[in-house]
């Protein structure tokens, strides 16, 4: 089987083979063909050579590495009331960052306009090209477009990619925030996990699944949408999607904020709930624990179906009281076999930005994409 230049770069980039000798062994190519293909990658700035690997005898081999400095990535994470953006190298190392209050409900034009301003500020003085833009959004995504988002009025079908591609001259990739949190957690912390689930518990609730190293999105991008699983006994809880009894309407940060407000503690979002919990407000702590139990009810089924090795609770509600409620019900209701090798972790605010960068790099430097780029240069 012929190993293309793009496949050789993939072997180097993923650390499977980082010397010419190792590539000869893995690829089965002749030395002449291998050299020609590596030369093309070196000339394109995709590959760099230098340093030597440890040797027990003979001439040490020079190391090959993916040149992560020849381009940059722009990434942004949009939440319900807040957004952040980063400029990174191709390893995901952040070179600079911007963040601020930004209401997703204000619609795509003002939100994307502000993010584009952040991007331009961060690019000032940068002499490397942008290889791609990754955007995380709090709604379902299909084919790069937001589809019927319950908490994103005005975003349904909006061409986020076209809006930003024209401005930055680079491909734009968009995905759901829980998916990108899961991808970011997997790549940064749990690369060996065969099945990982991230639950984002903020103003709303959603889950991202990485199975076999890849994000599992379902048929049309709806996988992991646990926030709209209906809970019995909560028929009075109306969800933003229009249904009654949805998990998000019962245990999401928005629902908790509304209850705190009714108790005389004005709160507007999941981040506000988190602030009250961290301040030790008894009502907020009590509500967080109960919300965790409600989420645990749904996760008991999810864990039995997916059988993950790692379950990460992320988002504004990812704090010990909420997670204690999740653990209490999850371990009581799920099959012991499904939880005996399960690690439940607190992921803080999540890794959506890291996932957005990984999404761009893995797409733009996939073997076929690299081969097309080299053909264009020829």
Lay out the secondary structure.
Elements: H1 5-13, H2 20-27, H3 31-43, E1 47-52, E2 62-66, E3 72-78, E4 82-88, E5 94-101, H4 108-123, E6 130-137, E7 141-142, E8 145-146, H5 160-168, E9 172-176, H6 177-188, E10 195-201, E11 205-211, E12 214-216, H7 247-251, H8 253-262, H9 270-278, H10 282-306, E13 310-314, H11 320-333, H12 336-339, E14 343-346, H13 352-364, H14 367-377
Parallel strand pairs: 3-6, 6-9, 10-13, 13-14
Antiparallel strand pairs: 1-2, 3-4, 4-5, 7-8, 10-11, 11-12
Would you mind describing this structure in some detail?
With 378 residues, the protein is α/β, with parallel strands linked by helices. The protein folds into three domains: 5-67, Winged helix-like DNA-binding domain superfamily/Winged helix DNA-binding domain (Arc Repressor Mutant, subunit A, Orthogonal Bundle), CATH 1.10.10; 72-180 and 353-364, 2-Layer Sandwich (Nucleotidyltransferase, domain 5), CATH 3.30.420.40; 190-350, ATPase, nucleotide binding domain (Nucleotidyltransferase, domain 5, 2-Layer Sandwich), CATH 3.30.420. Helix content is 42%, strand content 20%. Strands 5-4-3-6-9 form a five-stranded mixed beta sheet, with helices on both faces. Strands 12-11-10-13-14 form a five-stranded mixed beta sheet, with helices on both faces. Helix 6 (177-188) packs across helix 13 and helix 9 packs across helix 10 (282-306).
């Amino acid at each position: 089987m012929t190993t293309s230049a793009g496949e050789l770069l993939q072997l180097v980039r993923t650390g499977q083979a980082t010397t010419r000798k190792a590539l000869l062994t893995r690829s089965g190519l002749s030395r002449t063909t291998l050299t020609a293909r590596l030369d093309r990658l070196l000339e394109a700035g995709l590959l760099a050579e230098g340093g030597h690997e440890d040797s027990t005898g003979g001439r040490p081999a020079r190391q090959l590495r993916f040149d992560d400095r020849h381009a940059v990535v722009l990434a942004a994470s949009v939440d319900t009331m807040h957004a952040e953006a980063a400029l990174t190298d191709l390893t995901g190392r952040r070179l600079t960052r911007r963040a601020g209050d930004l209401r997703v409900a204000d619609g795509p034009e003002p939100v994307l306009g502000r993010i584009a301003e952040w991007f331009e500020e961060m690019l000032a003085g940068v002499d490397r090209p942008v290889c791609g833009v990754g955007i995380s959004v709090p709604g379902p995504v299909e084919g790069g477009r937001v589809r019927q988002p319950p908490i994103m009025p005005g975003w349904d079908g909006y061409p986020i990619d076209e809006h930003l591609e024209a401005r930055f001259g680079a491909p734009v990739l968009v995905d759901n925030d829980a998916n990108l949190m899961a991808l970011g957690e997997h790549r940064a912390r749990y690369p060996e996990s065969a099945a990982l689930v991230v639950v984002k518990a903020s103003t709303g609730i959603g889950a991202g699944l990485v199975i076999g190293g890849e994000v599992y999105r379902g048929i049309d991008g709806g996988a992991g949408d646990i926030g709209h699983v209906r809970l019995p006994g909560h028929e009075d809880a109306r969800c933003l999607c229009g249904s009654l009894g949805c998990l998000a309407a019962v245990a999401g940060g928005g629902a908790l904020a509304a209850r705190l407000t009714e108790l005389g503690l004005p709160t507007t979002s999941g981040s506000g709930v988190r602030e009250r919990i961290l301040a030790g407000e008894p009502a907020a702590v009590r509500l967080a624990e109960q919300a965790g139990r409600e989420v645990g009810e749904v996760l008991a089924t999810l864990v039995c179906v997916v059988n993950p090795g790692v379950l990460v609770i992320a988002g504004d509600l990812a704090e010990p009281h909420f997670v204690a409620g999740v653990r209490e019900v999850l371990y009581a209701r799920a099959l012991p076999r499904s939880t005996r090798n399960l690690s439940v972790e607190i992921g803080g605010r999540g890794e959506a930005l890291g996932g957005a960068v990984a999404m761009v790099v893995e797409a733009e430097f996939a073997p076929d994409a690299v081969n097309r780029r080299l053909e264009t240069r020829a």
